[in-house]
């Protein structure tokens, strides 16, 4: 299975996530409650990130760059074939999801974060 398919599958495992293609068939956009948290293709994945953590990731890994065609303060683009290990990318995906959900109305936010926590407990 390609890294693209693996990371797309991981994104879609998160509560209420949906796959869309608003930019054409090459760019998969994963949304939660109609808000983007991941954009991926065969080469890279772009993820929302806390600004301070975004800078830390860019310093830690050669494969993490400022978000391509995105707000560079809040988004990172990760090259899939790089020095960034799968575990780190999965952590970045979950962080991106939480960043987006964190800006939603309280009831929606609490429901989605509870579902996420339940899912994470199940995976342990």
Q: Total number of helical segments?
A: 4
Strand content: 15-25%
The secondary-structure class comes to alpha+beta
Q: Name the CATH architecture.
A: Alpha-Beta Complex
Helix content: 40-55%
Q: Which sequence of strands runs across the widest sheet?
A: 1-2-3-4-6-5
Taken from the alpha-carbon principal axes, the silhouette is globular
Mean pLDDT across the residues is: 95
CATH fold topology? Aspartate Aminotransferase, domain 1
The N- and C-terminal alpha carbons lie at a distance of 23 Å
- Contiguous low-pLDDT stretches (5 residues minimum) are none
Number of strands: 6
CA radius of gyration: 14 Å
Quick structural overview:
This protein has 4 helices and 6 strands; from the N terminus they run αββββαββαα. With 124 residues, it is of the alpha+beta class. The longest helix has 18 residues, at 106-123.
How would you describe this structure to a colleague?
The protein has a single domain (3-123), classed as Alpha-Beta Complex (Aspartate Aminotransferase, domain 1), CATH 3.90.1150. Helices cover 44% and strands 23% of the residues. It has 4 helices and 6 strands. Strands 1-2-3-4-6-5 form a 6-stranded antiparallel beta sheet, covered by helices on one side. It is globular and about 40 Å long. The two termini are 23 Å apart. The model has no long low-confidence stretch (mean pLDDT 95). It comes from Sebaldella termitidis (strain ATCC 33386 / NCTC 11300). This is MmcQ-like protein.
